[in-house]
Design brief:
7-stranded parallel sheet; globular; about 220 residues; alpha/beta; TIM Barrel
Length: about 220
């Protein structure tokens, strides 16, 4: 059985795929893979009436492209079930919904609910979260992240928001096990212009500081 937690801890980066049409999903996945990305989070879109079908298909395409794939913006048990049926191996939410966490664990997927305050974070972890996503986070909030991760060092954290090549190392040095970003890589204009090489280049840029950190740890 694949140890998704260990893989996330090893890779330390998850690419967020939001609002990408299935017609170009395969190309986006190939571009990310070429740039070194191995884990992706395909998000549901609550404002899209067809999000269940669209996201399920996108998850399948990502898996076929060799990605370790999870579902994001999972707001209901129904979303979690659809993600599971599509083959997702982890579930990410912007909030902490007890029913979603419970269902995720029952389906033996990794649970990554979102939280921000100390009370929310501890509550999410006590409900069964494998990793707690600190969300939302802005680039200048690194001091808050450092305080939270040091005070609650027994909890594995993932940071979403405010992530770019200039901030990745600092956020990971705060003891977070991983970061997630999408808008700074999969830019709408690049997708519209089918500039897959630039998406690959941006993916590489985001992974460079992570590789540097790994190199220092191995010295």
């Amino acid at each position: 059985m694949m140890d998704v937690f260990a893989l996330i801890k090893q890779e330390r980066f998850i690419a967020l795929i939001r609002h990408v049409s299935c017609t170009v999903m395969e190309d986006v996945v190939k571009a990310l893979y070429a740039g070194g990305i191995r884990i992706v989070e395909v998000t549901f879109n609550p404002s899209d009436p067809q999000t269940m079908n669209h996201t399920s298909n996108a998850i399948k395409i990502a898996i076929q492209g060799g990605m370790i794939t999870g579902a994001g913006t999972v707001l209901s048990v129904r979303d979690a079930d659809a993600a599971y049926e599509a083959g997702a191996c982890f579930i990410v939410s912007p909030n902490t919904n007890h029913n979603v966490v419970k269902r995720t664990k029952k389906l033996k997927m990794l649970s990554i609910p979102g939280a921000y305050t100390p009370n929310e974070i501890v509550n999410a972890y006590n409900l069964g979260a494998d990793i707690v996503k600190i969300f939302p986070v802005l680039p200048h909030q690194i001091d808050y992240i450092k305080v939270i991760t040091s005070s609650l060092s027994h909890i594995p954290f993932m940071i979403t928001g405010g992530i770019n090549p200039d901030t990745i190392a600092e956020f990971l040095n705060s003891s977070a096990i991983a970061v997630a970003a999408g808008a700074s890589i999969i830019k709408p204009e690049l997708v519209n212009n089918k500039n897959w090489n630039e998406i690959s280049r941006l993916a590489e840029m985001h992974l460079t500081p992570i590789q540097s950190l790994k190199g220092k740890q191995n010295v």
